[in-house]
Automatic annotation (TrEMBL):
Keywords: Oxidoreductase
Similarity comment text for this entry: Belongs to the Gfo/Idh/MocA family.
Ranges annotated as spanning the membrane: none
InterPro entries: Gfo/Idh/MocA-like_OxRdtase_N (IPR000683), GFO_IDH_MocA-like_dom (IPR055170), NAD(P)-bd_dom_sf (IPR036291)
Organism: Streptomyces rapamycinicus
EC number: 1.1.1.18, 1.1.1.369
A matching Pfam family: GFO_IDH_MocA
Domain GFO/IDH/MocA-like oxidoreductase: 126-244
Protein name: Myo-inositol 2-dehydrogenase/D-chiro-inositol 1-dehydrogenase
Keyword Oxidoreductase: yes
Keyword hit for Transmembrane: no
One Gene Ontology MF term: inositol 2-dehydrogenase (NAD+) activity
Main enzyme class: oxidoreductase
């Protein structure tokens, strides 16, 4: 299998390294706006360096991985679909919900699979948690808690174009809640605060946020996020049902210190980076994409799925701004 990669920054280079180790991938074709980055990746991974996305699509690739800047996502996704090439694209689909809807309309019914990179769908713990829901062993759910705590804030330049903590960070939790429970969000109430990093407040964003989501079956989901968790990168999920409760991420490298007398858990080196925490998930995610590109399975996370998570982010952003509950119906009609 021959896979193209568009964008060779931090995550693109990481994906190139992962793909180069998969048995099903024979060769890579890479491109980046910075020619030196493509040349470096070509030398490092034995890939062919192309001078443009168009050249990648013309190189006989079986699938393409898009890890370019967010602004480029819509154009690259649509170009690949029109060329008949299956797509894996890092989230988000686009910078705005309006642009995401344009992409959805452009790719629907095209017969070409598009997979959006929500890697928690492939983390072993999260997969097991979903299996517990699907099997019914938890009984009806009543409470879900999803957490994403970053060890430190992203750079000011990133914050300025991120769209805010709900669109950039919490959207992973929103996708997780939908995927794990199999239910849709009907109403949100969100709040936030600024506890440091003055440039985040200057950009009109918050560095710490919480959202209460009401699902269509009455389940309540609590989503917690912060840019300030110096002990490490903390991504966890709790599911509480009428019969049993389970957790994903409750393992020895959890970046949390117990103050219970004699407690030794967790005792491992805390996760410090999302690529560290979800290394296995990233590999499983790209392995799944090779199966999608080979026509062996449908996309496990479609553009439509990503748009739904985006709508929840829009509702939470509005709720934060106006200090009130917001229904999903309200933001969809706006």
């Amino acid at each position: 299998m021959r896979i193209g990669i568009m964008g060779l920054g931090r995550i693109g280079s990481f994906h190139a390294e992962t793909l180069s180790t998969l048995d099903t991938v024979d060769s890579l074709v890479v491109t980046d706006p910075v020619a030196a980055a493509a040349a470096t990746a070509a030398e490092r991974f034995g890939a062919h360096a192309a001078d443009s996305p168009e050249a990648v699509l013309a190189a006989g690739v079986d699938g393409v991985v898009i890890a370019a800047a967010t602004d480029a996502h819509p154009e690259l996704i649509v170009a690949a679909v029109r060329a008949g090439v299956p797509v894996f694209c890092e989230k988000p689909v686009a910078r705005t919900i309006e642009e995401s809807l344009d992409v959805l309309r452009a790719v629907e019914g095209g017969g070409v699979e598009v997979q959006i990179g929500y890697n928690r769908r492939f983390d072993p713990g999260y997969v097991a948690a979903r299996a517990a829901v699907v099997s019914g062993e938890l009984g009806p759910l009543h409470t879900v808690r999803s957490t994403t705590l970053d060890p430190e804030p992203p750079p000011a330049a990133y914050v300025a174009v991120s769209g805010g903590i709900f669109r950039d960070c919490a959207v992973h939790d929103f996708d997780t809640v939908r995927w794990i429970t199999g239910h849709e969000v009907t109403e949100v109430y969100a709040t936030g605060a600024n506890r440091g990093a003055e440039y985040i407040a200057a950009a009109g964003d918050v560095d710490t946020a919480s959202a209460l989501l009401t699902l269509d079956d009455g389940t309540l989901a609590v989503v917690s996020n912060t840019r300030h968790n110096p002990r490490g990168y903390d991504a966890r999920l709790e599911l509480h049902g009428m019969t049993d409760s389970v957790a994903a991420g409750l393992e020895d490298r959890l970046p949390l210190r117990s103050v219970e007398p004699g407690a030794v858990f967790p005792g491992g080196t805390p996760h410090h980076f999302f690529m560290d925490r979800f290394a296995a998930a990233y590999r499983a995610e790209l392995t799944a994409f090779t199966e999608v590109a080979a026509g062996l399975r449908p996309s496990p996370c479609t553009v439509a799925d990503a748009v739904e998570a985006g709508w929840i982010a829009e509702a939470c952003t509005l709720s934060l701004r106006e200090h009130r509950p917001v229904t999903m119906e309200e933001v969809r009609k706006a």
